[in-house]
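Deliverable D4.2, example record:
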Amino acid sequence: MRLTFLGTSAGLPTRDRNVTALALALEQHREWYLIDCGEATQHQLLRTRYSAAKLRAIFITHIHGDHCYGLPGLIASAQMGGRKEPLTICAPTGIEEFIDAVRRYTDLSRLSYPLAFIRSDHPDFCYRDENICVDSIELSHRVPSFAYRFIEQVHERMLDPEQLAALDVPRGPLWGELQRGRTVRLDDGRVIAAESVCYKQREPRRIVIGGDNDRPELLDAVLPSCDALVHEATFTADVLAKVGPQYQHSTPAQVAQAAQRAKVPHLLLTHFSQRYRRHAHEGEHSLADLSAEARQFYQGNLVMADDFATYELTRDKQLVPILS
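Output generated by the structure prediction step:
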């Protein structure tokens, strides 16, 4: 599973960072998924391998503009690019109405492809296709906000040659049927089930991607089985004490403690306030402040997200940076 950060700034873009958007893809597939779509996300995509033509579904965490204002432009550009395939948008209430209003007043009433909206704020929300299964977890923010848990659909089936030899299953079409998961009957009448001659399937990869949230402990139930957590860390604790809690964002310390409690192997922090500069000499606050605060509480693999940075969660659950 591959993550490409298209925007890592909170609220406002900076010279170095666009507002929130994140691409997720399974490495063996050309299709991909978009989590949040801040303003100018389609511009960010021009510097990546991803195109609107292969976009399978969009997941919006909440209705704040830095997470959804890029939707109309992306939808329109997909139309101009000749898209024909349906596009699914999973989002809480308000997003469908927002897009309907844009289409009504900006001549997007007729699209060349269908839009399908699924309410992710319903308790039984589940998106599923042949690649992934996704559910949502309610968070705490000024508006309804959600995290999405992405679970890989594992289809690989590997035959155990030693088991097949011991059962005297001849090579050829029968092996192919077993590889496809089908039960076969041998010439002597014996019935062989695929499960009995295959290696145990590997555990699917699981990634939780959170929206804005000031209570990371709301993810406690899902994090222990999670391989990677992507979560906002907008302010350090000292800055939060000055600006106040009314914005309802997390600090690196809060997120790090939740990840450490659950022993999440990989923690990727994003959605940084524009006051945090890349380097300490550029201003009063820097990304190093956010990183240092998280490091006080989290002992796993910590990543400070950057625009266009790509990471692959490998099949053996390692997080590897991918050079573009």
